[in-house]
Amino acid sequence: MDSQTETQTHAGDLDGFPVAAKSLLSERRLHTLKQGDMFGVFDQTGDILYGDGIADGLYFHDTRYLSGLSMSLQGTRPILLSSTVRENNVMLSVDLTNTDIDGPEGQRMNHDLLHVRRSRFLWNRVCYERVEIRNFDVEPRTALLDIRFLADFADLFEARGSTRPRRGTMRAPEIDDAEVKLSYDGLDGRRRTTQLRFWPPPAELTAQHAAFRFELPPGRRVLIHYEIECDPTERHETQPNRRFLRGAVEARRALRLSSSRAAAIATSNEIFNEAIRRCICDIYMLLTDKKTGPYPYAGVPWYSTAFGRDALITAMLTLWLDPEIARGVLAYLARHQAQTEDPVADAEPGKILHEVRHGEMAELGEVPFRHYYGSIDSTPLFVMLAGQYLERTGDVALMTTIWPNIERAVEWIDRYGDRDGDGFVEYGRRNKDGLINQGWKDSFDSIFHADGTLAEGPIALCEVQAYVYAARRAAATIGRRLGRTAYADRQDHLADTLRVAFNARFWIEELGTFALALDGQKKPCRVRSSNAGHILLTDIATPDRVPRLVAGLMHRSSFSGWGIRTIPEGEARYNPMAYHNGSVWPHDNAMIGLGLARHGYRDEAERLFRGMFDAAFHTDLRRLPELFCGFTRNRAEGPVRYPVACSPQAWAAATLPALVQSILGLSFDPAAVSVHFQRPRLPDFLEQMTLYNLEVGGDKVTVRLVRVEDEVAINVVQRTQSIQVQITN
């Protein structure tokens, strides 16, 4: 199929709502900014291109409030010098200059005489921009700047390629000397408005462009400020130039304040320091403050909203770093737990959210994602995270608050999750427009048999059974802390029963791994997969089977050199360019890495750590993307990019921090107020590592780890009086 018309099924997508492969995010090297419920996708010059298959834009609550933005200098598109999003993710900076320009009466302006710097950030539903033009010529120059703009108010799913039979109505624009309002009345009864304000007032302002003219003596500069606000609620008396400076300070301060909760990591390797700083900055950029606390949105551009599974896994991977993220995730998902049966939303009492959407198509039911629950693993992951959070923090008060939600989640597992009463949790969509596959690999072709035929449901995934096992153990632990002894004993008994049944039904002796899934006829999908690696996060596998499982995951057919493939080479549907059938996902490897460390496989965890760091070394901004292709690693080449991978992505950003935990054997004991390192390792590219402000029960400690041949020495640099550090070899 021609690449211009081919579509790829994407996570969270339905067959009818694909991400177009012609929207090549990796090829165009787009810049992204995100703050709160607003995000922007811009090209290298800072413009927003508009056209078929292009999803650039300024988005708010799943609607594109600005679909086109272009800037011309002297009537032509300026030349790009450089552009970058600064390390803290607050500001996009772009440097441009003029082309050769022939003026009237034979006058000519040579290139590189006018310098333009664009500085842009998002804050509180507003996109702020400052444009600075400086004349480096020895002659005075007339600077002509034209800013063109367009607002189509497309739903995010429209921007991704969906078509709609009907749309709402564009209202007549409202224009005055320095302000334009563009509005759209949606079919959902909501009016959406984009307001643009300029300072100084343009020489000409219409519904499509703002034109400026400045006389610039040699060496002089001029500043233009403008702002784009989504759904303005009040009229601002201060001018955009003053609001730009104040907003920039507030945006930096807010990000610095939230990220200051996290433990900090510094090493002897400056490139690794760049990568880990990018991870932390991305995590905190993607956090959105809810009434229930911080919540990590899944990723930009397609998943900048609340997802259940993504947030739960991100919280797990960052739990050692900042438990407040997990607390916010648990509180938000508890509040949005399903209360009733709703087949359209794939909802059943006690089930945990898959995703929330706020756009017009979701409000009208044109897509089923307004409050959608089509995820088989979010519910056990919710209980599993609650247990991990209690183990990390000792926060019994939160457990008391969300205990009814934990009970309802476990009841959902018993009543709705196990559809046929065989002891395993299965999925099958109740809405014909819902997701076909409801695990984290939710492409339509991701669950299949050894001959490549697609499995028919209801489907019981191997990793979901492990999550359920861990959820029952967690419910038992929490229950005992809250005095529910009988309840806890029952959950332990059910976990033991599940363990026996799982090992009997899922283990494939000739493959040395667990089946990818059981189909609706209870036939095992005899396929090797990374899914089986998630089993290592728990103790559901019998000890005699763990070595063979690990060996298979690290075999060259599975481990590409960068990471473990979703599906190893040799399987029927293996394709290193497929979304879920041969690609490499950082978060997938992070979870497997934690499982490897849990079972004592530090060498293997270190190989994953090395592969992921090397992948970050080769990517823009040292930022691990959502996924990359699963081709075997070649010397002196980076990983092959996946064309529509989201970047930044929350659980990808959490990968390197999680793998740091895995190689250090890092854990916490809130009762003893202590930090534990079990057989810590440092790879050969790290001579030393300092962890600042590891927190337990309000106490903090800073430690330095130094590699001495094959050993690691740990020194306490600073600590409060109560906290202890323990090392186990």
TrEMBL record:
Q: Which residues form a coiled coil?
A: none
- Pfam families to which the protein is assigned, alphabetical: GDE_N_bis (PF14742), MGH1-like_GH (PF22422)
What sequence ranges are listed for the domain Mannosylglycerate hydrolase MGH1-like glycoside hydrolase? 310-618
Which SUPFAM superfamilies does UniProt cross-reference here? Six-hairpin glycosidases
Q: Putative glycogen debranching enzyme N-terminal domain: which residues?
A: 33-226
- Domain of life assignment: Bacteria
UniProt GO BP: carbohydrate metabolic process
Question: What is this protein's name?
Answer: Amylo-alpha-1,6-glucosidase
Q: Which organism is it from?
A: Gluconacetobacter takamatsuzukensis
Q: Kindly list the organism's lineage.
A: Bacteria, Pseudomonadati, Pseudomonadota, Alphaproteobacteria, Acetobacterales
